């Protein structure tokens, strides 16, 4: 099915099942520990050996020699595989760096070898006995040093759309020079880790020349394609299966070393092999959200109307890599006749930079939305009103192009009302609660909606059970549940009559999970397959499909109802379809919107910033399940607090690696950091996006949170921090003295 | 993890002898730090002597009005003991500011004292580290040192002692009781227990090979107001950037020790004496001669401000 005209009325509009806050259908498995994650699938490959990956000890250089004799002779060892004996390997199209080093080393902890042994402990111990002789090369590891000479780029973040090298509208320089009120400020965001709970893990088993990997991956089709390409064999001999995933946040969008090394180890040992990456290796072996340096210039009339907007961002990546597209929201968010957007990419020999939840917008809004707060203050305008004044209903670069739906102003107004924004003192540093300085902050949330083609197969069994099969993944987002709700709504049955099977490359290719496209795209694919199944049912029953209503387990037409099961009495009905998209995404800008409101407390003595209250108001099309959507948004808000206050991969610019590469050193929020979180969804249905009339929401919840926290901290203290994370050392020396510093 | 042998000790002297008699042998108590370090091959003992069957799990009153805490009393039990909560509140607060409930259930009093630094270079066996691998160099000097020590360091090591409990014990003038392989016992003031790195940063404490901690003793209660203020980047489950343990008397005199700033809990008589003159005076005394790095210079003003918070009567936690 091709979606190329705005959706008319359809069965989803009934919202008997879709749109209801159903519990996760996979919830009981999760809370009883019986959802089989990749490393725990003991039954699929009995007697699997254990693999342990050795990572490179240098960031850049060459392997002069590998001596595995001590490891080969260690107890229990069945195989040791390095580039010397792995055979020729390709590189996945979506991988920037090779997943097995040798002889060149491209980044720290790049896989150098896998040891396969009878037990995990034996494999781990033997990996330490591999003697690798490295020749250290010189590399570039310091973004700040590389930024001044970084060239402009038009590349995309692999998850968004490519941009021209320098976007210009009007005459930015003249307008900025003429503006009575201006801001020119530079902001930085650090490298960040996905830090998902489940590590990279794979069980690999060969059957002759056929390979199966049971793994943890967000994009089955990409993993399938790139593993076949890496190993150099025909895709039809490979099966990738990933029904449950313990978080990914973009870290599992691509084929990673666990799958490749497990496959190589299993081949060498002649037995199935299971591999899980250790936590300390994940931070440098895999991908991360790249650091950015962002210069923003704003010019406005005294009325608050922006006349000039410039946003230039610089990030780094390995040769052949892509930028962190931190300017992407600035192209669309606020009106101004004169605009300049530029993105620069430095070559850095750090681990591969790539997509992490809301790539581009998450980092970009951290900067832009502080700039908007600073500008509002210069103009003497309330930050909420300043944003409203500069709202646009059209693409500012192409004014003839409208947004499919844009209710940012409503988000801001409703949020301000609910949060008690009026209580904010525009003069910072004046509200106290004992020894705590109190501040309120706001930021706009914005994330583009992306549709991906997505397929599904739907079966109606003789028992009346509707089974959905698609290689869509559930990375903790609720895919199982919203897909089941979609099939139930379409076929007119209860949720208890629907079975959803996901994550298997033998199933129809789906959108996968990423870029907040999964929910809307995958359910649209299921919608398409269900439309076909409804036609097959009607035909089997001798009815006109267009005149049929599927409800309450019946097919109703012309005043009579037939049990749905009767259509499959003589044999299962199967329908298969893929939803594809026409040009509506070009005709209309499809984006999601929101407003984040945050209250922080800053310890007047120590400068510690803690969040006290959070509210998000989101406008993201039809909400398929308010409960799972809310979980997505509060999780994203939590991630935003981490990015605002503590998360930073610290680069050792001498040795070229992320130093704090474990969860003691890379701090993410704990329960004590997260206060009451409130989420409001505006009642929307966007007919230009898909028949589901839904859009993504899982990344929107993150976008802008960091700036809302930063703006609240400024409101509390009067000290502006422009470098994330906002750790206390960045404002301590500018905080007011406290009395007892001098006298007890 | 390297292969190792294992035994369960049946008496303190036998345990001490078992460790003293074998190069590379170590005691195992709660294991919350040692086992993690073994998995990373930062610690590579050849033999473990498990001391959990030795029943040093009581907290008893002492003749001079103090408490004697068995070496293997869990952090949870110690922090929740009514006598500790009443008379040594700084200790309860310090313990509860550290780790997590699960870790405190398993961690022991002796083991907590012996936890090793959290310097990230100590944890990465690809990097030079004199504490882990003597003579290999120190990657932290000139590297990422935000968490590391500002005083008591050497040109060989700038690692920080990471714990909370010992900072409170230091301010309480606690002592460590030990037994050696010959059965001899000695008492080590906590002030002397942790070493400064000097030229041998691999040696954290003054314990001799095989010397086993049997108890920690607390002198009679000090009275006063007990404060433990731990400053960190997140609200829980993080090591201190700076911590302050203080016991303040109504007349403004008292004692203060700092955590997160040095290779051991940091306290000086001159700093204690400066307490009536306010936080800045105390910090000037306590940190005279400090050599912070660019990354951690903020710890000095932070110590001043944290102490100011501790000295403000309205704040007790």
SSE order and pairing:
The complex is a heterodimer of chains A (744) and B (317).
Chain A: E1 2-3, H1 27-31, E2 49-55, E3 61-67, H2 69-72, E4 77-82, E5 104-105, E6 111-117, H3 120-127, E7 131-136, H4 143-146, E8 166-169, H5 172-178, E9 181-189, E10 201-207, E11 210-215, H6 220-231, E12 238-241, H7 257-269, E13 273-276, H8 279-285, E14 292-300, E15 306-317, E16 338-347, H9 361-379, H10 383-389, E17 394-395, E18 398-402, H11 408-419, E19 432-433, E20 436-448, E21 454-460, E22 466-470, H12 479-491, E23 498-502, H13 518-541, E24 549-551, E25 554-557, E26 560-563, E27 573-581, H14 584-587, E28 591-603, E29 609-619, H15 626-645, E30 651-652, E31 657-658, E32 676-681, H16 705-717
Helix pairs in contact in A: 9-16, 12-13, 15-16
Chain B: E1 5-8, H1 12-20, E2 25-28, H2 34-39, E3 47-50, E4 59-61, E5 67-70, H3 75-80, H4 82-87, H5 89-96, H6 101-106, H7 109-113, H8 165-171, E6 175-179, E7 185-189, H9 190-193, E8 212-218, E9 225-231, E10 242-248, E11 254-259, H10 269-273, H11 279-286, H12 299-311
Parallel strand pairs in B: 1-3, 2-3
Antiparallel strand pairs in B: 4-5, 5-8, 6-7, 6-8, 9-10, 10-11
Helix pairs in contact in B: 5-8, 11-12
Please characterize this protein's 3D structure.
The complex is a heterodimer of chains A (744) and B (317). Chain A is α+β, with helices and mostly antiparallel strands and 744 residues long. Chain A folds into three domains: 2-35 and 452-580, Aldehyde Oxidoreductase, domain 4 (2-Layer Sandwich); 38-138 and 197-285, Aldehyde oxidase/xanthine dehydrogenase, molybdopterin binding domain (Aldehyde Oxidoreductase, domain 4, 2-Layer Sandwich); 403-449 and 590-744, Aldehyde Oxidoreductase, domain 4 (2-Layer Sandwich), CATH 3.30.365.10. Helices cover 23% and strands 26% of the residues of chain A. Chain A contains 16 helices and 32 strands. In chain A, strands 4-6-2-13-10-11-12 form a seven-stranded mixed sheet, with helices on both faces. With 317 residues, chain B is α+β, with helices and mostly antiparallel strands. Helices cover 26% and strands 18% of the residues of chain B. Chain B has twelve helices and eleven strands. The longest helix of chain B is centred in the last third of the chain and has 13 residues, at 299-311. Chain B is globular, with a radius of gyration of 19 Å. In chain B, 55% of the residues are buried. The mean pLDDT of chain B is 96. Classes of the chains: A alpha+beta (744), B alpha+beta (317). Chains A and B meet through helix 3 of A and helix 12 of B.
């Amino acid at each position: 099915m091709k979606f190329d005209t705005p959706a008319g009325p359809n069965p989803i509009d009934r919202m008997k099942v879709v749109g209801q806050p159903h519990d996760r259908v996979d919830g009981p498995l999760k809370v009883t520990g019986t959802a089989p994650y990749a490393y725990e699938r003991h039954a699929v490959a009995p007697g699997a050996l254990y693999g342990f990956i050795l990572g490179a000890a240098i960031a850049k250089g060459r392997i002069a020699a590998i001596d595995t004799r001590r490891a080969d002779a260690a107890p229990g060892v069945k195989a040791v595989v390095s580039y010397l004996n792995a055979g020729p390997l390709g590189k996945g199209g979506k991988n920037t760096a090779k997943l097995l080093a040798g002889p060149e080393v491209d980044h720290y902890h790049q896989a150098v070898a896998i040891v396969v042994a009878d037990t995990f402990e034996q494999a781990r111990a033997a990996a330490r006995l591999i003697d690798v002789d490295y020749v250290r090369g010189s590399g570039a590891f310091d973004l700040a040093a590389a930024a001044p000479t970084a060239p402009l780029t038009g590349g995309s973040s692999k998850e968004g759309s490519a941009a021209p090298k320098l976007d210009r509208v009007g005459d930015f320089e003249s307008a900025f020079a003429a503006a009575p009120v201006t801001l020119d400020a530079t902001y930085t965001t650090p490298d960040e880790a996905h830090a998902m709970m489940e590590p990279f893990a794979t069980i690999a088993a060969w059957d002759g020349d056929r390979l199966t990997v049971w793994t943890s991956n967000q994009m089955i089709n990409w993993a399938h394609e790139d593993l076949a390409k890496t190993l150099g064999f025909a895709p039809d001999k490979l099966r990738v299966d990933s029904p449950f995933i313990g978080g990914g946040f973009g870290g599992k969008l691509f084929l990673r070393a666990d799958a490749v090394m497990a496959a190589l180890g299993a081949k060498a040992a002649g037995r199935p092999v299971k591999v899980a990456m250790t936590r300390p290796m994940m931070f440098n072996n895999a991908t991360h959200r790249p650091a950015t340096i962002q210069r923003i210039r704003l010019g406005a009339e005294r009325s608050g109307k922006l006349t000039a907007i410039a946003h230039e961002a610089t990030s780094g990546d390995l040769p052949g890599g892509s930028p962190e597209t931190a300017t992407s929201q600035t192209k669309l968010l606020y009106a101004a006749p004169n605009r300049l957007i530029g993105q620069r990419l430095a070559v850095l020999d750090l681990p591969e930079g790539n997509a992490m939840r809301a790539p581009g917008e998450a980092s970009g809004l951290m900067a832009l939305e502080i700039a908007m707060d600073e500008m509002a203050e210069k103009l003497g305008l309330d930050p909420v009103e300043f944003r409203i004044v500069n709202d646009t209903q059209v693409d500012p670069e192409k004014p003839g192009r409208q947004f499919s739906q844009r209710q940012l102003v409503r988000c801001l107004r409703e949020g301000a009302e609910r949060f008690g924004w009026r209580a904010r003192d525009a003069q910072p540093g004046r509200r106290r609660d004992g020894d705590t300085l109190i501040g309120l902050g706001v930021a706009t949330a914005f994330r583009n909606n992306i549709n991906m083609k997505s397929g599904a197969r739907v079966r109606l069994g003789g028992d009346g059970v509707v089974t959905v099969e698609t290689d869509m993944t559930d990375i903790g987002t609720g895919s199982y549940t919203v897909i089941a709700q979609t099939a139930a709504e379409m076929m007119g049955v209860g949720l208890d009559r629907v079975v959803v099977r996901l994550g298997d490359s033998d199933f129809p290719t789906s959108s996968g999970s990423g870029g907040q496209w999964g929910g809307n795209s995958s359910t649209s694919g299921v919608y398409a397959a269900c439309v076909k199944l409804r036609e097959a049912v009607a035909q089997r029953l001798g009815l006109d499909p267009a005149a049929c209503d599927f409800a309450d387990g019946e097919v109703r037409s012309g005043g009579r109802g037939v049990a749905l099961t009767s259509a499959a009495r003589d044999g299962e009905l199967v329908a298969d379809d893929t939803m594809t998209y026409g040009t509506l995404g070009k005709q209309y800008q499809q984006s999601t919107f929101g407003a984040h409101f945050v209250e922080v407390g800053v310890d007047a003595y120590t400068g510690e910033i803690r969040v006290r209250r959070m509210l998000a108001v989101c406008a993201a099309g039809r909400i398929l399940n308010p409960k799972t959507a809310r979980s997505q948004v509060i999780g994203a808000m939590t991630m935003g607090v981490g990015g605002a206050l503590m998360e930073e991969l610290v680069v050792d610019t001498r040795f070229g690696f992320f130093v704090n590469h474990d969860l003691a050193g890379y701090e993410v929020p704990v329960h004590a950091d997260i206060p009451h979180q409130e989420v409001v969804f505006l009642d929307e249905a966007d007919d230009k996006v898909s028949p589901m009339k839904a859009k993504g929401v899982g990344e929107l919840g993150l976008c802008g949170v960091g700036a809302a926290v930063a703006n609240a901290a400024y409101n509390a203290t009067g000290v502006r921090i422009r470098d994330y994370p906002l750790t206390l050392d960045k404002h301590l020396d500018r905080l007011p003295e406290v009395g007892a510093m001098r006298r007890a | 993890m390297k292969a190792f042998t294992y035994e369960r000790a049946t008496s303190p002297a036998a345990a001490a002898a078992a460790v003293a008699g074998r190069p590379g042998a170590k005691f195992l108590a709660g294991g919350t730090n040692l086992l993690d370090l073994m998995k990373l091959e930062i610690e590579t003992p050849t033999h473990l002597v498990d001391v959990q069957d030795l029943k040093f799990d009581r907290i008893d009153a002492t003749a001079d009005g103090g408490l004697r805490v068995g070496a293997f009393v869990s952090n949870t039990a110690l922090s929740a003991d009514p006598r500790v909560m009443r008379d040594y509140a700084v200790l309860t607060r310090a313990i509860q500011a550290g780790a997590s409930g699960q870790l405190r259930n398993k961690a022991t009093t002796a083991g907590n004292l012996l936890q090793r630094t959290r310097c990230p270079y100590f944890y990465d066996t690809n990097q030079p580290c004199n504490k882990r691998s003597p003579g290999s160099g120190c990657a932290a000097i000139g590297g990422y040192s935000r968490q590391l020590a500002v005083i008591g360091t050497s040109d060989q090591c700038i690692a920080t002692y990471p714990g909370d409990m010992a900072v409170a014990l230091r301010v309480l003038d606690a002592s460590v009781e030990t037994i050696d392989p010959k059965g001899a016992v000695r008492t080590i003031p906590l002030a002397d227990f942790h070493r400064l790195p000097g030229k041998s940063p691999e040696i954290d404490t003054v314990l001799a090979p095989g010397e086993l901690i049997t108890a920690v003793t607390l002198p009679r209660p000090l009275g006063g107001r007990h404060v433990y203020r731990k400053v960190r980047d997140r609200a829980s489950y993080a090591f201190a950037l700076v911590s302050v343990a203080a016991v303040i008397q109504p007349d403004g005199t008292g004692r203060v020790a700092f955590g997160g700033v040095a290779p051991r809990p940091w306290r000086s008589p001159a700093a204690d004496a400066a307490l009536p003159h306010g936080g800045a005076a105390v910090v000037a005394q306590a940190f005279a001669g400090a050599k912070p790095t660019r990354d951690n210079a903020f710890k000095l003003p932070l110590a001043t401000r944290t102490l100011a918070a501790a000295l403000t009567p309205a704040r007790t936690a």
